[in-house]
Predict the structure.
Amino acid sequence: MIEWPPRLKLAQLPTPITKLEKFSQRLDGVNIWVKRDELTGTEVSGNKIRKLEFSIAEALQQSCDTLITCGGVQSNHCRATAVLGVRLGLKVHLILRGERPQTLEGNLLMDYLSGAEISYLPQSEWRRHEELAAELQNQYLADGNKAFFIPIGASDEVGLWGYIAACEELKQDFERLEIDPEYIVTATGSGGTQGGLIVGAQLFELDCQIAAFNVSDDAAYFENKIRADVTLWKQRYKQQFDGEQFKINTIEGYVGSGYGIAGAEIFQTIKELAGSDGIFLDPVYTGKAFHGMVTELRKGEEGRLAGARDVVFIHTGGLFGVFPQQQNFSFD
Ligand SMILES: *Cc1c(COP(=O)(O)O)cnc(C)c1O
């Protein structure tokens, strides 16, 4: 039996799982299923809310009244935190990487609409963002507030629970649909979704591999990050879990020019899936992962998703990140 830590009910769960009837026909004998985690809510849509159910529960347990977190200017995680904070009556302070943009759009617009306090930290100083967060915590304390720090993407031993819990949901999905997928595919950025899925798949005995397409950094980074988070998780929650056994499968080669920068093929993929099945991907995360998945599936037994019959793609959200990049779509 799993002893769960404190958790808030914030997300619309369970999310649906749907088969891509039309898109799958383009792939010889492979069925693609989409776990619709872009439907965890409207303003709070995406994967981050699953982790924040645990992170914010922890903040409340520690009697905090303020949340501090950080990320890119178009961070989905920061936007979800800003919205959940205002709903729960918590003050939210975001540290965003870069300069304040001329136009406030997409996720950033929503951060402002939710009334979050925003500090910008230039890229050149980003390595000290956790220091800045600690300084802010001290300032809040001096003003009589207690601020809880959530790291980038809520990817730590607390947020790890989000996708561990999602595996319980997936297990029920697979039983109901009578499918036995060979792979669960996700985008990976701060590692918490990938790590949670790896641990959860083992705990709930899902007999499938977690294949993560990195949209930043490299496989070695995720190897270290996930092993570190899982070690802390085991210590903190006294979990019996074989930390040696699990395999971290990060599929490299689809970052493109860098985090948040997508090539024409990604915008084409977004257009194709929207046009075939009416499901919208984003250029920062899901578009790259989906493009990577399809490219590997098309390589068949030579590809890195060899043996695939049923593949479950976790749609981790990101829709609001489409609009700030809308000029990159082309239509004839
Ligand atoms: C944050 C994010 C991811 C990556 O999840 P991590 O847990 O940070 O690795 C994937 N897709 C979207 C849309 C995201 O916002």
User: Anything to note?
Assistant: The mean pLDDT is 97. The longest strand covers residues 66-72. The beta strands are 17-19, 31-35, 66-72, 91-97, 117-121, 147-150, 183-188, 209-214, 249-251, 310-314. The pocket of pyridoxal-5'-phosphate is lined by residues 46-48, 76-77, 153, 155, 187-194, 282, 285-286, 316-318 (CB under 6 Å).
